[in-house]
Specification:
Radius of gyration: 28 Å
CATH class of the largest domain: Mainly Beta
Distance between the termini: 56 Å
Number of helices: 2
Number of strands: 12
Helix content: 25-40%
Largest sheet: 6 strands, mixed
CATH architecture of the largest domain: Sandwich
CATH superfamily of the largest domain: Galactose-binding domain-like
Order of helices and strands: HHEEEEEEEEEEEE
CATH topology of the largest domain: Jelly Rolls
Number of domains: 2
């Protein structure tokens, strides 16, 4: 009941102030209503434009896997099981780590303190959903890897490089590798020397529809 009285009080105050405004500035009731209608239409237009713009921005980039995102990874003491780079593989027993991964002088988000002298390669996978593969217009892949690497999309080899790189690649021609539903991007990144004093591995993957 107390809340109702408060609401009624505020309503009376609002009405009094509106009448005071109309009398002070000589604004007729009909003109005031016309002003309010125009204002409402303007606000509705701005809201619709913001919604449309937001939808366009969202649609312009389907997948954005950036530095610092989590990937499942496997320490290459031995080769991972067959199918590790395909959709549907069970990676639940693989640890998750944020990129970049590595060891040495840099403060890595996922520190591989046991890599030196023990294993040469790290395998990383990340799954993502594509609702309409035909809408994909551009695929870009960026990588910092201290040695040879192999990139796979849904188990298919997309690119192989035998030397250390920091590189950005346009893989738009490989859009046919994508499927509707679950997809997987997978990378094997190796060090040049198993006894090297450092190693870094940071993959970035983007898919756009414009």
């Amino acid at each position: 009941m107390e809340d109702k009285h408060v609401i009624k009080s505020f309503s009376r105050i609002a009405v009094v102030r509106v009448h005071s405004f109309l009398n002070k500035y000589g604004v007729g009731r009909h003109r005031f209503i016309h002003m309010m209608v125009n204002l409402s239409l303007c606000l509705l237009f701005v809201t619709c434009m913001n919604g449309t713009y937001g939808s366009t921005v969202q649609a312009a980039q389907l997948i954005h896997i950036v530095d610092g995102d989590e990937w499942h990874y496997f320490k290459g003491n031995h080769e991972p099981a067959d199918g590790w780079n395909y959709p549907g593989f069970d990676h639940s027993k693989w640890p998750k780590g944020r990129t970049g991964l590595g060891y040495g002088a840099v403060n890595f988000r996922t520190y591989l303190g046991d890599m030196k002298g023990n294993y040469l390669s790290v395998y990383a996978v990340r799954d993502f959903i594509i609702h309409d593969p035909s809408s994909v217009k551009q695929i870009t892949f960026s990588l910092d890897c201290d040695g040879p690497f192999v990139l796979y999309i849904n188990g298919k080899e997309a690119i192989r490089n035998p030397v250390p790189v920091t590189i950005q690649l346009d893989l738009s021609a490989l859009a046919e590798f994508l499927v509707k539903g679950e997809n997987v991007v997978a990378v094997q990144c190796s060090n040049e020397d198993i006894d090297s004093n450092d190693f870094s591995f940071t993959p970035i993957f983007d898919i756009h529809d414009q």
